[in-house]
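Justification of resources, computational component.

The compute hours requested in this renewal are based largely on the per-chain cost of generating structure records like the one below. Each record pairs the submitted sequence with a full structure-token output. That output is archived, and it is also reused by downstream analysis tasks.
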Amino acid sequence: MTVPVLRPLDLGEILDVAVKIATRNIGTLVRIVLFVVLPAQILIAIVDVSAITDYKPTSSIFPSTTGTTDSNEAWTQAAATLVTVVVGFLAGQFATGACFRAVTQAYLGLETGWRSSLAFAARRFHSILWIVILGGFLTVVGLVFCLIPGIYLAVSFAVALPVLMAEGQRGRRALGRSRRLVSGRWWWTLLILVVGGLLASIVSGLISGAISAVGFASGSEPISAFLITAIAGTAGALVATPFSASYHTVLYFDLRVRKEAFDLQLIASGLGVEPPPGWEPPPIVLPGPASQPPYCPPPPDWEPSADPQPPAPPASGPPSDQPPFWPPPPGWKRPGE
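The structure output for this chain reads:
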């Protein structure tokens, strides 16, 4: 394993590293998204085109129509929207988990592939869903009762999926682990999430919007609408999903480097020395008085007795400032004798 050189990064460096990881592993990440998102988008397009009258492609998850609808059609559209949301959510979380795995392996200098990443995410798909649903539920509860706790929890749970993929912690443990990592760096984490999220949304929105605009210009041909819908949804995910996984993963490792000296753990691992569970870096000892008393040699005229015994401690009184004198073992001689 090639041990990467890690250090605390600033905002620009985190985004720059995220972009480099995504571009250098573009083949793996694109295959992951295409394998998961493209079939889901085809299914969504089939549902929308067949169930919704006068359907028009849109970059939104909610279908678009060009005319009025009656009550029966409204229920059909509601059912189509529900299918669209559920299928899109499941596919998005699966692709996100696989991308997190691939990015984590690449960031640590390990070999990765799109098949192994998909298999890894498939084995932990229920854990991915549970973390997303539980974290989302707690965030929504915080937003309903008071806006600030909801925002706080949303940021605190930002690296829960990287915790799952890198450490194997699940459910509440992953959420708690994420909150502890973000603690003390909450505003810093919020800034990275806002900037990274805006960049991903803008780029993917421009791509999906441009493709959807072609759909509006192409008329109401069902085949054209079907193809444009599938392509637009997949194209947006090809940009947003890998980049989002990249900057979340880099953020996760940056927090570990800052708070847990994760870079030193990697160096030890690369040398074949695995730190024990719960290992923490030793405290830095500044120059100063030694913590152990100095060795005091015996006096010049001292000779060992037949049955040496250490002196008994004083029965009472304050402790002495000098360390107790312990005679050498039997048979000891001064140098030169």
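Residues 270-275, 284-288 have pLDDT under 50 and may be disordered. The CA atoms of residues 98 and 118 lie 5 Å apart.
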